[in-house]
Structures are given as C-alpha cells and as structure tokens.
## 1
Amino acid sequence: MTELAAHGDALRYEIVINHEKDGNWTATIETLGVCAAGTTDIEARSKIQVRALRAIADRIEADGSVPDQISFAVWLG
C-alpha cells in the first residue's frame, strides 16, 4: 500500500491482526513484508510495529528519504 516517500510526505501502513485457531495472534504488514506473533493481540501489534519501524529505518538510511509522519491503521482479519 505505502512506499517510502520524499520529505514532506506521510507514510501509512495497514496492520492486519488475526486470531489463530491455536489461540495465538498474528500481525502482518504486507507492504513491508513483516509479520509477528503473540499470545495477545496487543503483543502481536507491539511486535509488528517494532519490526516495521526497523524496516522503515533501514529504508530511510538506504535512500535518504525523510517522512514527516508514520502511522499505522489496525484491521482485525
């Protein structure tokens, strides 16, 4: 959905949270190719945001782009 943009732009990523049959929760941000799991939806959401921010930081470091804002929208799958 969202790719890293030039200075002045906002980045918005969608987190999809799923409750698995085994009771665990998974979170995915498809556009960044990151996923995480946790025993609660809050744990999965926290882990995915950490992984997303690391991926975004790597991209900023690689191409020098500087977003003004980074946001996450959460969807229950």
## 2
Amino acid sequence: QLAAERQKMEEEVRRLVREGETRRTAQAKVAFQSKPHQPGDLVGQSGIERSLEYDLAGRRGYVAREVDSRGRVILEREALAPEPGLSVRLTLDSRLQALAMSLLDNRAGAIIIMDPRNFEVLALASNPTFRLSDFTGNLSLTRWRALAEDRFKPLLNRAIGGRYPPGSTFKMVVALAALAEGVITPETEFNCRGSLQLGDSVFNCHNHAGHGRVDLNKALMQSCDVYFYEAGRRLGIDRLAQIARNYFGLGRKSGLELPGEIEGVMPDVEWKRRTTGRKWMPGETLPAAIGQGAVSTTPLQVAQFTAMLANGGRLYRPHLVKELLDVEGRLVRKIEPELVSRLDLTPSFFQAVRKGLESAVAEQGGTGRLAALPGRRVAGKTGTTQVVSNRVFQSFSRGQVPYRLRDHAWFAGYAPAEAPEVVVTVLLEHTGGGGAFAAPVARQILAAYFDHSIVSLKLPRPQVQPDLEMEGGLAPNLEWDLRD
C-alpha cells in the first residue's frame, strides 16, 4: 500500500515539474494534498474508517531550517503547521443499532433500518460478527484462521455483501413494473388454482389449494405466486430487468460508504448468454418473477426498493455519513440526499401497491400479520426463499429439516403506512417462513422506533461460539402455513 501510494505521488510530482514547478516545490504540494502515510501509521482497515481514511487522517506539518556546522539555526526557510483530521457524524441511531444486533442474537442474518425520505441508514446489523478487539494490536494466526474458516462467515457483512434470492419481497418490484408497462391494472384478475403450467413444466403456488380469483391487492396480501407468474410472463424478463436495474437499483452497487458491497444479479436474456452461453428459456421468467431463480440481491437492495415504494418512486443513494466536522466541531461538509433515479408512475398505481402491502399486515389472511403494531398502520411484504428444490426439502419430515437446507426468512416494510418515515428490512438465514420468523422481528423494531424508551436488554454478542449454538438456537421449520 505504501509503495503504491508513493508511486502515485511521484507521478503527480513529475507532472507538476513538467508544468514548470521546481521538484522541491512540487514535492511539498503533493505531500500537502495527498496526506502520505508512513510506516507505522494507523489506517482504517474496514468500514467507514477505510472509506473515509483521507478525511479522518490529519496532515503532517514540517519545518525547513538552514543550520550551521554546529547545528545552530541560521534561517527558517519554510514551515507548514500540522492539521488534525476531520470528525464524522453518522446517520446511525446507536439505540436502534444495538437493538437490531440483540434481536439477531444467535441467528445468522441482517437487519436494515432506513429513512425512506432521504435514505439515511439508521441501523445496519449483520450477524454473526467478530470482536473489534481481535484486530487491535497483533492478531494471532490461530484466531485469524478461526474467523476466516468459520462456516458461518463472521467476517462477511451480510447487509451489503450477502447474496440472497429476495423471494416474495421482489413482488413489489414486479407489481410496479407490470403497472408501469401496462400489462396489468390494479383490477386485473388471474385465477390461481395452486399452480401454473407452462409447456411441460408446472410452477406451484405456495398455497397448493389455490387462491381463486386474485386481483393485485389480494395477490400482495396473500403473496399469490400464480398472479406474479402471470404478470412476469406478460412483462418478459428483459423489460422486468430493465426497470429493476434503472429504477430500483438492482444488479448494481448502491454506493453506500462501505467497502465490500456486491452488485447482486438481475438476469435477462443477454446476461444468460454472456454467463452461460445459453438461451434464456420462457420457463426461467416465472421463478424470477417471484424473486427466485437467478435473481439475487443484498438486504440493502431490498431496503432500497422498499423505501422507493414508500416514498412514491424516488431512489436515493443510501448513506451512513451525515456530516463532517473540524476539530472545533464546525461543519465542514453536510451530506445531502443524492437522487439516483425516479419512477414517474401514476400515483394511483403506487397507492394500489401500498394498499396491498398494508393489507398483508392488517388483514386476516395477510402473510405479514405478525408485523402488525397496535396504534400504527404498518405496510410490508414477507418473503420465503428456498435454498434447495421442493423435492429435497420435502424429503424430510416436519421439524427435521437440517439447518443448511431451511428457507431464508424475509420481511420488508415501512410505517406509518399513510406517511412513511421508517423502513425495516429483516433477513434471517435458514430460519423458515418470513411471516412466521422475520415479521415478528420487524414488529419489535418498529415498536422501538416509535417508543424511545425501548432499548436493547443485553449487549449485542460478537461471533457466536460454538457454531452448534447457532443451529440449536433456531426454531425448526414448523410454520408451514406461514412460509410466505
């Protein structure tokens, strides 16, 4: 790192010399501007400390003096006073962050709390994690190997670096895309008989008995797969992917000020040709339309498109940095919301989708009813994503599904439904149904958001040890009626 930094500085010095500067003056200018590091300096290794290293680092001063043979100062030629680095004020709410970590407890997953009005991140929790003290001073090789080789990946920030099928939370995107392209209206109905046949393939709904005649509101409330199979088939994968990328931020990094973020995958015909050399088949569009198949996202991306729906179509760059301050506490730079895209859609279409999400929480039969909060109107969408085929999953008896084969649980929602001010996204790995497991966690977070007296009852725990504790701490996959 030091060698690369010095090479870059030398290239800049040479450029200034070519433009007429003396080498001494050019070196002084470059050193002042670039804040070069020296051996032994402490630098940010990860997180905000790494991405804002230049702002957080101070600037060294120097004095150039002419002395005689006895070391006495004859002339002070030039001097530069040292400058302290800036301070960073984050958007994080420490109370909500601690609560989110404590709710994850001994479960693998991520929780994101965000303000949909400006995409300020109020909490960004990932579990299991590690002790920061492990990286202060000398880290033993034994400890490093334990962290790096742990199958629960404590070094992975799941909120931005975890790759997951979004499951039925993706139906928010499909609904808005289908409305935008005119392939459905809020009143469009499809008949769900429990499955849909396309060619020789049969695509099941999570309700094998079928939902009957379903419009958009009921499809979102009860998470009818057949409805979204039909909507996705009419859209086609290319139109769906284009809208999902251009307006919802899928398949690309959000730009959050943290290293380690991944893009996820929003597939289309060209993507499959480029990655596999094969043609996209019509049957691949149907699982993609319910957030399965080749579609993959990070929890942050799910929080993004939920916030976009909540605020009426505006996608901002999510951010953790609120402002930068000098050593005296004076404001140096304030981070303003950065608009990335805007989906201009008939307001009634947004309202129709939001109504369906509110019904999912408030109405009997809604998949997200365990997220309901007395006295508040909550809207949200559950999701349950498979990690193995139905044939493999159903080969185990009830309650005996191995941990690694259990579904991931999602809930993505916001409140108050009539004027959203907070978005909550919960992902729990290998836990079971989103309605049964993720929705109650979201309810606890929303309760704490509106009631500041609610605090974490215990400190968040670092990496879960031993690994068996994580498997043993999870409830078995019993909530078959709430799998979505």
## 3
Amino acid sequence: MRNFREITLVGVLVLASLATAGETATLKKLYEQHRWFELREALKSHKEAPALYLGAVASAFNDVKGAEKYLNRAIELAPNSDDAAEAHEMLGYLYARSGRYHDVVQQLDLIRKIRPGRADVENVRTIYAAFSQHPDQSVARYRPTLLHADVSKAGVVLPVSIHGKTVHWLLDTDFNLPAMSESEARLLGVTVDEVSAQVEDSAGGATKVRTAFVDELAIGDIHLQNVSFLIVPDSQPPMDGLPPGSRGLVGFPIAFALRSIGWKSDGTFEIGFALRRDANSERNLFFDGISPVTRVKSEGKELDFILDTGNVAGTQLWRRFADDFATLMKQRGTKSKQTVTEVSGSNEREITVLPEIQLRVGGLDTMLRPASVFSKPVGDEFHHGLLGMDVFSQAREVRIDFRSMTFELRP
C-alpha cells in the first residue's frame, strides 16, 4: 500500500506540473499575440502569474500604478533579460502616452544597456531626448467644455489655440505624437529644433521629421503646458493637401490629456463629460503601446481594431482578419490594388475586396461596403485592422472615455 500511495502521489505531482506548464504556455502565447482581453481573463485563474504578464495587462487597461508595480518587479527578477527589456519598453509606452518625456528617455536608456544597437530604440530616443530638454507635459487648467468642431467623413477638426492664434487641426487618436508642418510652426511663432529623426507609418513607409515645443496650448477650457511636437515637411502628407492654419494633428498625448471626448454629427464636441456609472457599460478599450484599440464583433468573432480618428481614407482590414476569415476571403474576395497615403507618401498596395462586412463597433452595427483587406506591409500581425471615419460617421454620436476605457457609437 505504501508503494502504491507513493506512485499515486508522484503521478499527481507530474500531472500538476504538466498542467502548470500548459497554463504558462497559454499565457505566453496570449502575451506574444497582444491579446490583452484574453490574457486578463486567463490571469484571474492563475495563482502565480508572471509579473511581466500582470504588468502588460495593467498597462493595456490604463492601470498606471499596477503597471509600474508589476513591470518593475519583472525587471528586478531578471535585470538583464529579454523580459526586462520588454518591461522597460512597456513602461516607456506608458509614460509616452501622458507626455512624461524624461521617464521615457530613462526607460530607453535602460533598454540600450540590455540590448545595445537597436536602431528603433536609438531613433525614438533622439525624439524624446529633444523633448526632455523641456518640462513634461501637464494640464494647467481642466474644465468640462462644449465647442464646435467640423465633423464629417473627412475627420473631426478642432480649434486649437497657440500663442494667441487659433488654428483648426484634425483629431488623430492613432498618431503617436502631436504634429504640425514647418510652415504652421512659422505661422504660430514656434521654434523648430534642429534634431532630425525618422517616423514610420502603418503602410510600411517612413519620413524625416524634426521636433518643436509649445509652452501652452488650449482647446476650449482645457489648457495644456509643455506640449512637444513632431515637425513634418510641408511636402509630406497630410500637410501637403491642407491650407495654412490647418496643417497640424491633435495627436494621441493631447487626446489622452483631454480624458474624455465626444462629438455629434452636428459638430457639437464635448470634453470632460460625466463619468458613466452604468454597470452594464462595456469596457471595450485598451492600449497596445500608444495606440488605443477597441473590441469589435463580426460573424460571432471578437476582433481587435485600432481606433484611428485620423483615418479619413477608409477602414482597413489586415492580415489577422484575413487569417480569421479565410473561408470568406476565398469564397467572396477579389484581388485588386489600392493607393495608400500615409505620412511617408502614397504607395499602391495589394488588397482583397469583400462586397460587404458588418462590424458591431461600440455597441452599434455598422457596415463596410466594400471592405478592403490589405496585404503586408500594411498593418501588423496583432490587430484585425484600423477603424476609420467611414465607420464613425455612421453614428449620430461618438464617445471615447480614457478614464473608464469605454468607446461608444450611438445611433
């Protein structure tokens, strides 16, 4: 009997070990695929979850204190590991969202020590090192406000005040930094740095930019201090097609500082609306790096789309969508080409055209007719696509709340 019990105990321990290994492998796969909703659910039943994964989920859902706690713990456990480099990178994104320039540079320098020679890190550090010569971005005054915006399929254009002058710039929630053209900087009396760096776009292109700093910027009754900008040549899209006074982008760090934004089809734009306490309100937003991403439903599947108010050319479907809907692509798709215009310029890309696709976005059923599925180099492997103004304009009202991490389209 004694031997039997010992054998049984050994068998139980082996099975438990295999189960734990299987759970860890599942967590690792979800982490590597940036499937933050699924990883968050999986971690709830995991007793000893890796700190890196806990920190990644906390960052994705805008839990700043939790992200710092777990990501710093992951770094302490293995300071010179790949996990540590990834934790530093996620902390860098966390700080970049809110304009904490000095903390971003610190995290980039720590990555350089662990993994020297990364060209992407060196390029981004050049930009944030220029920003860090100034104080971090901050909110000087915050009062909920209503104003009028130009709202159409061509985007949401907001009045922005700098140095006593008002310009009208496109709201672009997926442009990682505020931007203006060289001529716009001269118009506003903004000094441009001589720092030169490169920015890449989602279509696989890149362009040279410089940097600048604005000591105060106002949108309605919201006043921000120490806002840093990318300076884009006037010869590059979208600046080349815009008149003076419109050659700028209200990029993500400004949008995030506004905390909650909403607009109606009649042009009413609201900042700082009351936080909803509805228990049934779905928290359907998360951050992947700096990009805001929303959960979308189609054909019984849950999909992840980047929320891009600056995308006025039309919603894009990417490789992950093609993989998840392979049968549909084969049965109904037709090959074609489409010109994609990003900050680096215009390029013709291969697409598969579907006659139509229904997407439930922010609680509203929307339709793409037709729907363009892009091949590489457009897009990435983590998201199903990029939502644009053709979807948002199907709603009477759009609401984005970065405090409760909710996104709504109202009929």
